[in-house]
Write a structure and sequence with these properties.
Blueprint: E1 17-19, H1 24-35, E2 40-42, H2 48-57, E3 62-64, H3 70-83, E4 86-87, H4 92-99, H5 101-110, E5 124-131, E6 137-139, E7 144-147, E8 150-153, H6 160-176, E9 181-190, E10 193-201, H7 207-214, H8 218-226, E11 248-254, E12 267-270, E13 282-288, H9 291-305
Helix pairs in contact: 2-3, 3-4
Length: 309
């Protein structure tokens, strides 16, 4: 399968990017555009075909879905193709297959990636994978969503051997689909058995966990790869192995807009401007050389944010 239904050009040839969505979900996509020297615009509350028409009126020639769910990306990709705009993501047919659980499972079955039993409620492991137009792929570091608004990377449920195997499965799945850019594949681990659940294209909001542990900006890499760039390797080994195992990273969704954070080593706050109070408008990322150091930094940051100091 091809990665796009319309011609995808080098980032330097794009004139302007329309980023779908609003608030926190557009933050990393907008930052990546700016870092690559691309002009970008927000969606002004417009969605679907109306958003694409709005983008064309503004002279945009690339649509970025930001952190949109796969179903929304299908709609945006269709509208982009009809309008002759490039789209940051897979082609419509592949997006539709990724949205359809049975279709995505069949795709994995065909390349002999083991499947999780249907309706299995075991905790999931989520692994981002980068793929370039030459088919070269890199699995980053898996994360586990502990409960709503909190995640950790890497998972402490995997042995080093299971982590390597997970990366191999994820790469095989991403390459077989003909993906270019960024995709997150999700698996269950039951006993010693890993099984594929689903895959989601593009940004999900949890990329920061892999970013702080590898030094790769996944939002930037996504745009680079869609534009034809070559895969770049992180500063540590694939899947977090030697030299320099990455330690631990933790993510918290924060909803108090009046919170304060002074920063410091191993602390990052992703927070857009202008969000209303009471909404989940910030992501706190903390990391350390090991779980103890990450936990200390987490306690300090949350104490500051909650105004206890």
């Amino acid at each position: 399968m091809k990665s796009s239904d319309s011609a995808v050009r080098q980032p330097g040839s794009w004139q302007s990017v329309m980023v779908a969505g609003s608030g926190l979900e557009t933050l990393r996509a907008g930052q990546a555009c700016t870092e690559l020297g691309l002009a970008w615009r927000g969606s002004d509350g417009k969605i679907g075909g109306e958003l694409v028409r709005h983008a064309r009126r503004l002279g945009c020639d690339l649509l970025h879905p930001a952190e949109a769910e796969t179903a929304v990306q299908v709609t945006l990709a269709k509208a982009s193709r009809q309008a002759g705009m490039a789209f940051v993501g897979p082609c419509v047919s592949l997006l539709a297959a990724m949205h359809d659980q049975l279709a995505s499972r069949q795709l994995m079955r065909e390349v002999q990636v083991p499947l999780s039993p249907l309706n299995d409620e075991s905790p999931s492991l989520h692994l981002p994978v980068l793929v370039d137009s030459r088919g070269q792929a890199l699995a980053l570091i898996e994360h586990e969503i502990l409960h709503a608004g909190r995640a950790v990377a890497p998972s402490d449920r995997l042995t080093p051997e299971q982590r390597i195997y997970l990366g191999q499965l994820a790469i095989k799945g991403a390459q077989s689909a003909g993906l270019v850019g960024l995709v997150t594949l999700s698996f269950t681990l039951v006993g010693n058995s890993l099984g594929f659940i689903s895959m989601r294209p593009g940004l999900t909001g949890y990329e920061g966990l892999a970013e702080v542990l590898t030094g790769l900006d996944l939002a930037v890499e996504q745009l680079r790869l869609v534009g034809g760039g070559r895969l770049r390797r992180p500063r540590i080994g694939q899947m977090g192995h030697g030299p320099g195992r990455p330690g631990q990273a933790r993510l918290h969704m924060l909803s108090r807009s009046e919170g304060f954070l002074s920063g410091g080593p191993g602390v990052r706050l992703d927070r857009p401007r202008g969000e209303s109070a009471g909404t989940p408008d910030a992501r706190l990322l903390v990391w350390g050389r090991d779980a103890d150091e990450a936990a200390r930094r987490e306690r300090r940051a949350l104490t500051e944010w909650q105004g206890i100091l």
